[in-house]
Structures are given as C-alpha cells and as structure tokens.
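pasting for ref
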Amino acid sequence: MAFKIVRLPLITITLVFLFFTSCGFFDRNPQPPEQPSVTQHHFEEIQETNLDEYGYDREAYEIRQGVVQRNESLYLILRDMDVSPQQIHQINKEAKGIFRENRLKPGQRFIAYADKEDHSIYRFILHENALNYVIFDWENDIVVSRGQKEVETELMEAGGIISSSLYETLAENGNTTILANRLSEVFAWQIDFFRLYPGDSFKVIYEQQYVDGNPFGVGKIRAAEFVNKGIAYDAFYFDNGERAGYYDSNGDGVQKALLKTPFKFSHRISSGFSYNRFHPVHKVRRPHYGVDYAAPLGTPVLSVGDGEVVEARYRGASGNLVKIYHNGTYTTAYLHLNGFASGIRRGQKVRQGQVIGYVGKTGTVTGVHLDYRIYKNGQPVNPLRVKLPASKSVDEASRPDFEDLRKRLQEELNAINSETKSIASGV
C-alpha cells in the first residue's frame, strides 16, 4: 500500500498544536485538578440569639407572664388571651396523660409567647413548681411536653444538739426542716426519732439544691453522724455503679429490713408492749402484744418494710386490720384502722414506706390510736426493743473505693461543730 504525504500549510499546523495543547495532551508537567478553595465555600454567619431558660428566643415573641388566680382553670387563662375554645379543646386533648387541669393551684407561674404583629398566642408554659413545668406549644402542630429547670447543687455542712426535737433544733440553727426528714430517712432503722433525748446530737454533710439561684430543696445526704442516748451512729452514701446506698463505718448496710415506726411524723406512745396489761375496756389484765400510738384520726399508716399483705379485713376486737408478711422471719400487724388505702387487699405486694391504711378507732377501743405489732418467727416481740437484721454490706471488690470515700468524709464530719449553722462545704 502506498502512502501519500500531504503537506499542510504552516498556519494550519500551528492552530492544531495550540488546540491540543490547550486540551492538555502535550503537557509535560501535568497539574492535579484544581481543588476548591475553602474560601469558595459559603458559610452562614451564626447569629447570637437571646434564648431564655426554656430554649426560646425572647426577641422573636411578645412575652406575657402571670400567676394562676383562685378558681382559675387553663381554659379561662387561655380564653383571656383570646385563644379560641376549639383550639383549647384540642390542646387539652393532646395534654391527656401529661397534664391534669384539676391540679392547677393559685400562685403557679406561667409564661405566654405571642406573635409580635397580630399578638396571637403560640406557646404557653405553666410551672407546677420552681423546678417542673409543662409546655403547651401550637405554633405549628400541637405539642404538649414536660420540662425541668436546671438544678445546681452545693455541698453544705450542719450540726446541732437536740434540745426538744430534731425539727426545732434545725429550725433554730437556720436549717430547713426538709433536712430533718432526710436524716430520719437515713437513720430510720437505728433511731426512733419520736423518742430523742436532750443532749442527742448530729452532724451532716448534704446537698443543697438551687433553681435559678434560689434554694429549692435538699438532695442526698453524703455523710452523717447521729448520737442517740450516748450511742453514735454513722452513715456514708456510696455508689459502686451497680448498687447505691448508705453504709456505716464498717461497710455494713445502714438500711434494715423494717422501719422503726409505721409513721412519717412523730406520734405519742400511749401504751407499750406488755405481757400483763390492765385492759381499759374489759377491766382485766391480759397481754398487750403491740405498741399503741395516739395519732390523730386519719393519719396515714406506713408499711415498715417490703412484703405481701396476708390479711386486710375487719376482725372483731382488732377492728380493721392489715397484716403484712415481710420474709421468713418477720410479720407486722396494724390494728384499729379507720380504713384501708387504695389497693390494699390480701395478696397485694407493698413497698417499705407505702401507705396501707389510716389511724382509726374500730374494734374494741376507748379512743383513736394505732396498735402496731411485730411477730418474729410467729411470736410477738416488742417493736421498741427488737433488733432488726442489717442489709447487704459493701462487696469486697468495692472496699478500697469505699474506704477512701469514708476516710475523707469522716474527716469532714469530725471538723463540724455541732452547734454551728449550715455552712458551705469544701467536700
């Protein structure tokens, strides 16, 4: 095959070369494709917003605030803000299971968010207390939710010497009486707080809670010491990640199987345990296997421990009675009740501290009181003298961590003056 050489004009060759060069075919040092520069991306500038404590931009709304008045309902409050009855009906429908209107109380604070132009309400926040609130939002779809303010905690110390009662001693030293409840809950298994003596003393390290910078409540007690009738009891809160609770300096659980008394507050003992008591009605001597508490009619009676109700009925001279089986060793009974708490019946499981009935005067009695009894292995024992079994101790694997915590808190307790008011702690 013969080839014919065609000679092209110089101008044509030049144009062809420039074309292929521009396409990169003859580039001896090829460059990587140009990467987009960061400066080529578009970033929107983040504007600071004036968010309130609920997470909403106050500048975007017209804010109205107020408090619930006597006999006011959610319906009346929203109607006064020109929310339509149809809208309120839908809001209440969505609020079922989250908010109960019949629990509205005078003094509850609320905040409403309105459109700045037409002044229509789009959101309503109702405070149940300083901590908890309910959000009703219908700016788009109707959404009802619950929220909580942030709780800040500061460790505090307190000490005192009992002159009359724990409550009065704390109040005299400028402490909240809620702290008395916390202490009585921690030592309820060792100390009968209804029978304190002048000269008894306490020291405590506890969590003081704040909401919006204002005192809100008392959190956990971290460590405490209570001297009752010359005997010192201590407790340290310890959490190993699997189980948390209060333990004494030996690492034994402070919480016992049963509470010392079936009440939350103090009540006078009108008659004690006896094998030969003169009966005020029958006028003869016979055993009295319980302790009588002269509490007001209707006072809630608590189960002193976890267990199962084995009897809840009217039984002659004992009146309305609840009997609870706690374990293979202990059973408790509560006599002369005015009535039973909701759900209390035979076979019902109950928790320690649960209300099971109310003080009354049913059966053979001369007045209102509770007859409280404890049976150990089926035999009646004196509730004021029975020694209750201890709960679990700190496990061996957690002992080193517990000892480090206990030593540090013990030093702090030793440094507390029993006659001082609450002060901030460095614990």
